[in-house]
Amino acid sequence: MMKDSFDKLRCLFYLVRHHGSVFSGKVRSLPPLVLWIFTLYQIFDPPIPSTLIQGYVAAAMWLFFAMVWFGYLFLSDFDMTTEHLLILQINSRLLYVISKILFLTVVCFAISLLGALYPIIMDFAFGIIGLTLIADGVRLSDFFGALLLNFTVGTLGVSVAFLFHPNPSKNSDSFITLIMLVMFALMAFIKHQIFNFEGLFRYLLLIFTPVYEILRLFSDKSVFTVGDLAMTAIQGSIYFSIAMMLGYWLYSRRVYGPLLAKPESG
Amino acid sequence: MTFSRSIYRVLIAIKANCRGKTILDCTRNNSSRFAICLELERETIITVSDMTKKFGRKIILSDINLKINQGDAIAFLGRNGCGKSTFLKIVAGLMPFEKGKVTYCKKLKFGYVPERFPAMNLTMKDYISQIGRVLGLQKEDVNERSKQLFEELFMQDMIDTPIRYLSKGTLQKMAVVQAFLTTPDVLLLDEPISGQDITSQQVFIEKVNHLNHELGVTILCSCHEDYMVKAIAKSVYEISDGKLCQIKHTGRSEFDNLCKLLFVKKSEYKNDDILAIPQSVQSISVKPEQYEGREVAIYVLPSESDRVIRDMLHENFELRGLNDERLF
After folding, report:
1. What per-residue confidence (pLDDT) applies to A97?
2. Chain A: residue nearest B123 by CA?
3. CB A52 within 8 A of CB B79
4. Mean pLDDT across the stretch A111-130?
5. pLDDT value, residue B191
6. Rounded to whole angstroms, how far apart are CA atoms A237 and A250?
7. Is A196 helix (H, G, I), strand (E, B) or coil?
8. pLDDT of residue A65
């Protein structure tokens, strides 16, 4: 049992590395990352927002879109033959899908880290030439809070991309899924402006990604509190888990079909 | 002791010692020895029942029933677009279908040689190395195994070339290398040799037969080449109008008894489209196979080979190969 789990983990590790080496060499992987770095440059270029937290919140919003874009590009890049070969080689469709999500999560963590570190590095650089970028100074909690916020919002972007990535076997659907993806990503921010539901009906809006709800937690705060961060993590992880399960079910059903045979005694 | 009593005793002995085997035939040859043909009762590993597959409204496969036993080598023939590749993918669980059932006796490991290997930025060496690690092989094992396969398939000069720049034939060989890194339970071959050079095709066929004969790997092959079918398949099915029909067995044994002569038309002949094979040769040979580059393979009984060579040389052909060995 232990050996089996270890083998699966090792397989997962090498699959993620494989995805990385295949996708990183492609020019199409760059635009979302350039967008993200440009956004950081714009937000943390003097004069920066009134507090560091507000800057992080504004950046997190763009990180959501950057991860939706990156996730869509990555997930729509695979052709069916590559996918079939990998699935047959590892003998598990679930493990293959997990490896793709894990790759996106690793990328999300890396650029979340960059987002959390960027103002700190810039503050240090400005300090060398005798200027101050962040008046209140940087606390350790700011860094970890920003990392968690960025990572949570980024993974929500991954979940949206996974829910709406084009079915590789039906190219004609790809434009429709792209439109749906953009609409769904935008709804994460404007759902409360469009749908003014009262009472229990407002829970229907939980169908859309809870990015607005998460960012609103920090809208008028000057420090990250444990309560807000815990709420962010809980909301994000619940939505991410449900979206992943739903996405996997839809993907399996459409691409590989409900009748995929299970081992039965002959 | 009469001959029949001898056979009876042998049959009893075999029945006692070989449980699960069926005696198919018992024949006596000229030297008073006799051969007994046995067939192992092999386990059915995949059962396809009443399976129907549609693309839109078009029915590609209709109510297909097939039992695939361990160690089978089945070739699927049919015109382009008839559903051969689709059937292979359905058997491997890679494609949904509208009706029916596919059941496996256990969790099977499939190997797959696709018709078109995807182009990517990685080099062949890097790709195989990464796939080997994904498969759970040690780095040294992957290097050793892939080096051997690259050499056997004449690819060692291209291992550092990005896959996207490789030719169709080399891509197919690449697909073969990745499929042969480990030993699967079932090997799916989707038109695996259509772009490969002749020598690589022979290596490929030998390897597939080794897997099938020695290791009991089940082979499911979609192809068009008659010699490939003869060289690999134990049973042959044709897919036509959505139906799967078993066609005449063209098995290896018949093919193996023949002598393969490989000829090339001399260069001064410009008409490459149709090689003028003498009528006398056509009448005594199994169907000749024409390859690219004015090459033609002819299968004849060994006793007829001298006559065929003489007739072909007379028609300005050069003898290039004999029984899968190139003369020059």
Report:
1. 92
2. A22
3. no
4. 88
5. 87
6. 20
7. coil
8. 93
**How far, CA to CA in Å, does B31 sit from each of A232, B1, B7?**
88, 17, 15
Cα–Cα distance measured from residue B161 to residue B126, given in angstroms and rounded to the nearest whole number: 10
Identify the pLDDT of residue A1.
60
Look up tokens 């382009």; give the residue.
B80
- Residue A14 reports pLDDT greater than 90: yes
Q: Which residues in chain A are contacts of B103 at CB distance < 8 A? A: 261, 263-264, 266
CA angle B210, B216, B222 (to 5 degrees): 75
| Distance, CA of B191 to CA of A204 (rounded, Å) | 51
For chain B, first and last CA: distance in Å? Answer: 55
Residue B87 contacts residue B234 (beta carbons within 8 Å): no
Provide long-range contacts, Cβ within 8 A and 24+ apart, for B67-71: B68/B44, B68/B186, B68/B218, B68/B220, B69/B42, B69/B43, B69/B44, B69/B45, B69/B218, B70/B42, B70/B43, B70/B44, B70/B45, B70/B185, B70/B216, B70/B218, B71/B40, B71/B42, B71/B212, B71/B216, B71/B217, B71/B218
Sequence-separated (6 or more) residues with CB below 8 Å from residue B244:
B61, B64, B65, B66, B76, B87, B237, B238
Q: Rounded to the nearest 10 degrees, what angle do helices A52-75 and A140-164 cross at? A: 30
Which among B106, B117, B134 has the least Cβ separation from residue A11?
A: B134
Band (B38; pLDDT cuts 50, 70, 90): very low
Return the ∠ at Cα A188 (arms to A187 and A190), rounded to 5°.
55
Interface of chain B toward chain A, CB-CB under 8 angstroms: 43-45, 47, 89, 92-97, 100-107, 109-112, 114, 116-118, 120-122, 126, 130-131, 133-136, 178
Residue B37 has pLDDT above 70, yes or no: no
CA distances from B199 to A73, A199, B173, B181, B323 (A): 41, 75, 12, 20, 12
Q: Tell me if B101 sits within 8 A of B233, measured CB to CB.
A: no
- Distance from C-alpha of A55 to C-alpha of B68, rounded to nearest angstrom: 63
SS3 A183: helix
Residue type at position A114? L
Pairs across A and B, CB distance < 8 A:
95
Give the span between the Cα atoms of B239 and B74, in whole angstroms: 13
Is A263's pLDDT higher than 50? Answer: no
Nearest-angstrom CA–CA distance, A222 and A137: 12
d(CA B240, CA B223): 14
* Burial (CB count <10 Å: 0-12, 13-18, 19+), residue B217: buried
- Say if residue A47 is preceded by a cis peptide, omega within 30 of 0: yes
Higher-pLDDT residue of B221 and A2 is B221
Q: Which residues of B touch A21 (CB under 8 A)?
A: 122, 126, 130
Reported ipTM: the value is: 0.80
Q: CB-based contacts of A2: which residues, under 8 Å, 6+ apart? A: none
For residue A57, the Cα-to-chain-centroid distance in whole angstroms is: 15
pLDDT, residue B4, reads 52
- Could you give the domains of chain B? 5-247 (3.40.50.300), 257-326 (3.30.70)
Closest CA to B288 of B261, B316, B268: B261
CB contact under 8 A, A85 and B178: yes
- Separation CA B240–CA B31 (nearest Å): 46
